[in-house]
Amino acid sequence: MTNLKKLQTGTEDEIKKLCISLAYRSGNYTYQERQVEEWLNEEVKTNCYGRVIIG
Fold first, then answer.
1. What is the rounded distance in angstroms from the CA atom of residue 55 to the CA atom of residue 8?
2. Burial bucket for residue 11 (CB in 10 Å: 0-12, 13-18, 19+)
3. How does pLDDT run across 23-32, given as a tens digit for each residue?
4. CA angle at residue 14 from 17 to 35, to 5 degrees?
5. Please, are residues 16 and 53 in contact by the beta-carbon 8 Å criterion?
6. Could you give the angle at which helices 32-40 and 12-25 cross, rounded to 10 degrees?
7. Residue 3 contacts residue 16 (beta carbons within 8 Å)
């Protein structure tokens, strides 16, 4: 499942974790538009229980 799909279907807690993940990543790119596009299409990082994690 991509980050975009999880943003559309996830719980409030999962969405907060995804937003934190994007914020951490934002320091690594100059072009925010490209950064967001790449991030939305990445697979969601989950633990063995299927819960979203920051990684």
1. 20
2. exposed
3. 777 776 667 7
4. 50
5. no
6. 140
7. no
For 36: left if phi > 0, alpha if psi spans -120 to 50, otherwise beta; the answer is alpha
44 exposed, middle or buried (CB, 10 Å; 0-12, 13-18, 19+)?
A: buried
Q: And the tokens for 24?
A: 């951490």
pLDDT score recorded for residue 49: 92
**Is residue 9 very low, low, confident or very high in pLDDT (cuts 50, 70, 90)?**
very high
- Tell me the C-alpha distance between 40 and 5, whole Å: 8
Helix (H) or strand (E) run with residue 36 in it:
helix 32-40
